[in-house]
Amino acid sequence: MNNMAWSSLMSRIRSRTMSALMMVLLVSVGGAMAAGGQLEMDFYSNTCPHVEAIVRDEMVKILKEAPSLAGPLLRLHFHDCFVRVHTLLFRVPSLYSRLIIMHLEMNEYRIKKLFQGCDGSVLLDSTPTNTAEKDATPNLTLRGFGSVQRIKDRLEQACPGTVSCADILALMARDAVVLANGPSWPVSLGRRDGRVSMANETTQLPPPTANFTRLVQMFGAKGLDIKDLVVLSGGHTLGTAHCNLFSDRLYNFTGANNDADVDPALDAAYLARLKSRCRSLADNTTLNEMDPGSFLSFDASYYRLVAKRRGLFHSDSQLLANPVTRAYVQRQATGRFVHEFFSDFAQSMVKMSTVDVLTGAQGEIRNKCYLVNN
Ligand code: HEM
Ligand SMILES: *[C@@H]1O[C@H](CO)[C@@H](O)[C@H](O)[C@H]1NC(C)=O
Ligand SMILES: *[C@@H]1O[C@H](CO)[C@@H](O)[C@H](O)[C@H]1NC(C)=O
Ligand SMILES: *[C@@H]1O[C@H](CO)[C@@H](O)[C@H](O)[C@H]1NC(C)=O
Ligand SMILES: *[C@@H]1O[C@H](CO)[C@@H](O)[C@H](O)[C@H]1NC(C)=O
Ligand SMILES: CC(=O)N[C@H]1CO[C@H](CO)[C@@H](O)[C@@H]1O
Asked: From the CB of 252, is ligand 4 less than 6 Å away?
């Protein structure tokens, strides 16, 4: 073969390879789209018709044994939905030198776009080679993992290999709120479990020190707006917080690290009370009710606290820094529009729990919520 013929053959191969490659990529993208289903209310109606009743029944028992788990279970779902792994994986085909085209292994070409919203990734344990979200600092304070697995075990008995851990968590969070006398909302189902959990991705979670701008930006990155921010922050009507997550407001707000270095956005009487509970910056064990007196019940009293500059975190206090969120806080602080807050909360939860989830053939149905399948 002379040089001309060789280079013309090569260029033909190259162009055919390119178009084959383009074809395969297009087919795969189309396939991935087709494989992505939708969330549906009656997703398990044939495969696990009693799923909601089973979760509810078990949640009643769990909260009877440990009423303080309502907050942690709501928070688990929030963290699950907020931490998303964004990856674009291309797998290069094995190239057999001369027979490039004939050996195009269709199945080797995968274009996988993972935008994982609520996908159960928060539940995964770390492995020897990967530190999971669970073990990242913002999440060291998460609780309730055992209860999720307890419900998963019951569902595995009733309908093996059917219900995803991500769906279980979405249902548990809803039931936790309902059983704490809060609002209910429809949970559409069909989420699939992700196979990735990365500790470094928890930087997507807003820290308690965040200012208003940062909160808006971090919620915005999840498709949630200012209204969702002020409404979902109302989740802090439930549960407790460790001193060290807000003690910078008491002793080291600007970094001066002395008794007078306090957050000016905190009510003075409340500040004194918090200082008597949290004696130092190092205290990472003392728990504080975020909505003192009613931390086990879901109500609008969180807003009354925030309006009085008694929100526990700097992030809570920041809801007063913007006219729109401040107006919402003040309206709810009157206690006369609780039904409005309930219906807003339900709406924002539906939004948060459905953005960018895995569906259809994406991900998997985990056998154990803390482990990816084999
Ligand atoms: C706006 C940004 C948010 C920030 C900065 C934030 C931060 C925090 C922090 C630091 C804690 C204390 C954890 C501990 O010490 O154990 C906490 C607890 C909690 N958060 Fe948030 N959070 C935010 C939004 C949300 C949302 C959207 C929800 C749910 C709708 C939520 C529900 C909860 C619950 C229920 C607890 C109590 C957990 C327990 O009792 O163990 N939070 N949050
Ligand atoms: C987390 O680590 C993975 C793998 O090391 C990397 O691909 C990803 O971009 C990192 N994410 C962030 C938010 O740093
Ligand atoms: C808000 O916090 C961000 C960093 O998280 C900072 O860059 C910004 O200057 C702060 N904005 C205000 C108004 O303090
Ligand atoms: C006090 O705050 C500064 C600035 O945020 C920080 O660098 C320092 O580590 C804090 N001191 C303690 C004892 O936590
Ligand atoms: C609390 O602080 C102590 C001492 O600094 C540390 O050894 C421990 O790991 C911390 N606990 C948690 C849950 O971070
Ligand atoms: C105990 C612990 O490491 N707590 C960390 C939890 O996450 C917050 C941020 O949300 C960190 O500031 C804490 O240090």
From this structure: yes
